[in-house]
Amino acid sequence: MTTTIYGLKNCDTCKKATKWLDRFGVPYAFVDYRDDKPSPETLVEWAGKAGGFDALVNKSSTTWRQLPDSRKAPGSQAEWKLLLREHPQLVRRPVVVRDDGTFSQGFSDNGFKKLFGVG
């Protein structure tokens, strides 16, 4: 099964996730979404699987806190897509997408064990 990890190459959580995958021999492809920004359609798909754009975004991030208040309340899907294309680092990471449609965000040892059926 193919697994794609979307994140930022300098993100500590993404590094922990990829080290975990390496340790357990789980093959994956890593996509840095600052360099290879997700398409608007992909963002909509992720938001749908995450439970909405609010759930997709890390609102405790420095980037979010530095946004002007007017940008923190997108009123439409189009505004969310624009915001996340402009600031992909707002997406809570890592985003894990498997070819069977499985989607998850974030990293924890137990969460990955369950997701990948390890241990």
Largest pleated sheet: 4 strands, mixed
Structural class, please?
alpha+beta
**H/E element string?**
EHEHHHHEEH
Quote the average pLDDT: 94
The general outline is globular
Q: C-alpha Rg, in Å?
A: 14 Å
Which strand order does the major sheet show? Answer: 2-1-3-4
Model regions low in confidence, pLDDT < 50 over at least 5 residues: none
**N-C termini distance:** 18 Å
Strand content: 5-15%
Please work out how many helical segments DSSP would assign. Answer: 6
Number of strands: 4
| Helix content class | 40-55%
3D architecture notes:
It contains six helices and four strands. The chain is α+β, with helices and mostly antiparallel strands. A four-stranded mixed beta sheet has the order 2-1-3-4, with helices on one face. The longest helix has 12 residues, at 12-23. The protein is globular. The two termini are 18 Å apart. The model has no long low-confidence stretch (mean pLDDT 94). Belongs to the ArsC family.
